[in-house]
Amino acid sequence: MKKLALCAALIICCGYMFGQAQQNVLWSFGNTPNDGAGPQAALISDSAGNLYGTTSFGGGVSGGTAGGTVFELSPQPGGTWSESVLYRFCSQTDCTDGYEPQAGLVMDSAGNLYGTTYYSYCTTGEGQCAGTVFELSPPSPPGGEWNYNVLYTFCSVVMNGSDKCLDGSDPRSQLVFDASGNLYGTTVQGGTGHFLGGLGGGVAFELSPGPSGWTETVLYSFCVLGEGNFCSDGASPQAGVTFDTSGNLFGTLEAAGVGSMGLVYELSPGNDGWTEKVLYPSFNGNSYAPVSFDAAGNLYSTTTAYGFQLNVKHHVARTRAFSGPAGKECQSGVLVDIPRNALFGTAAGGGTSNYGTVWEVNRARQLVPVYNFCSQPGCSDGAIPLAGLIEDQSGNLYGTTQQGGAYGKGVVFEVTP
After folding, report:
1. pLDDT at site 140
2. Would you state the torsion angle of the CA atoms of residues 7, 154, 149, 120, taken in this order, to the nearest 10 degrees?
3. Domain of 311?
4. DSSP class of residue 310?
5. Residue 147 — left, alpha, or beta (φ > 0 → left; ψ -120 to 50 → alpha)?
6. For residue 183, which phi and psi values (nearest 5 degrees)?
7. Are the C-beta atoms of residues 12 and 320 closer than 8 Å to each other?
8. How many CB atoms lie within 10 A of CB 21?
């Protein structure tokens, strides 16, 4: 099984009705005490075929706060899967280790996992800080506990006389590495911008390792342009960033001020720091999805209402509105499947039961509803998929749903198109 980066797609809901693909629930959360609940992030996999992910809730330590988990699913003989909870958040005093991870993980070449938590508490115990970046390292020798380390706690730099977090707050993004081992991501609020009553429009950040630990650099603070709640440079990045082949970063923003209309942006490095360029300044719907590129350099992404493609010159090449039959309320990135010449993704709503779908844009550029969730009694097959998909070498797709399953707390599923 190989890891594939999450991508986003064009597209569309047209309403072609095809037969259901085969779907298998690999794991239903809530099966064991202190198991996770409510997964809303994408999975990753290692070379052995194990799956890794996060749950936003569950995993309460000794009956305490259920701050979410990091989990591993391993294939077993006979087609079953076993779960190992690698870490339960809010395990440290005052939850200084963070809680409620809302994004997926990234793995380095040594097998260490990296991610973000949306919340944390200050080391002084005096209040709520604004999330963490963490590292989770495999045990040595195998079989022991994984080693958890907070690399950075947000809201460590505040504006005098205010509660503005100049270094960012509330990260929801999956992280990405550069070739030098630096990590990049975004926060929903914070920075020097003026959005949301002065709390800031979020930041794009870089974390760099050094002898004394990891150091954060704010690459760009959003909502520094415009007045009031109008942000011509955008605000509130929900998704992470994607590198192009030239080292520029691309992403989407949930809002651009009036009407909460989002945009696509590019950040480019230079001698005087990073500069932002708005590529696609106005579309309907909120964007929670990252961008992706195909081999030709075309860019794809989605909003809750629209899907779109930007060509290599970053001009709008195609847009299409979402509607109900094949899925709506798309909140995730999608998978670009090169061998099939197809695009795959999930929708959190729509479909035959209005609990979401897995959809495909096939070679003929038709939108096909591959699987409709809540097709089984009690939604035992899962409901409300918020995350994107990954694919193994056989073309099977893997993802999560936030709800449904045998215990109603979400599932990890496999779909064979």
Report:
1. 86
2. -100
3. 1-31+290-417
4. E
5. beta
6. -105, 145
7. yes
8. 17
Structure letter (DSSP) for residue 67: B
Q: Kindly state whether residue 398 falls inside one of the protein's structural domains.
A: yes
> Does a structural domain hold residue 185?
no
Residue 53 maps to a domain: no
- CA–CA separation, 92 and 81 (whole Å): 30
Q: Evaluate whether 167 touches 161 at the Cβ level (below 8 Å).
A: no
Distance CA 24, CA 381 (A): 8
Maximum pairwise Cα distance, the chain: 61
Does residue 5 lie in a domain region? yes
8 Å CB contact between 256 and 264: no
The predicted-structure confidence for 93-105, as pLDDT tens digits, reads as follows 888 899 999 999 9
SS3 370: strand
Identify the DSSP state of 198: H
Which of the 8 DSSP states describes residue 191? Answer: S
What is the domain count for the chain? 1
Q: How far apart are CA 45 and CA 49, in angstroms?
A: 6
Under DSSP, is residue 62 helix (H, G, I), strand (E, B) or coil? Answer: helix
Q: What is the pLDDT of residues 195-217, one digit of tens each?
A: 877 888 999 999 999 999 999 99
Residue carrying the six token digits 């994107």: 388
User: Residue 143: how many CA atoms within 13 Å on its side-chain side?
Assistant: 1
Closest CA to 100 of 144, 132, 124: 132
- At position 398, the amino acid (one-letter code) is Y
CA distances from 46 to 67, 137, 173, 314 (A): 25, 14, 21, 34
Whether this model's pTM surpasses 0.85: yes
- Residue indicated by tokens 């496999």: 414
- Which helix H or strand E contains 196, and what residues bound it? helix 195-198
Q: H or E element: which one contains 195?
A: helix 195-198
Identify residue 274 by its one-letter amino acid code.
Answer: W
Closest alpha carbon to 59 in 47, 70, 51: 70
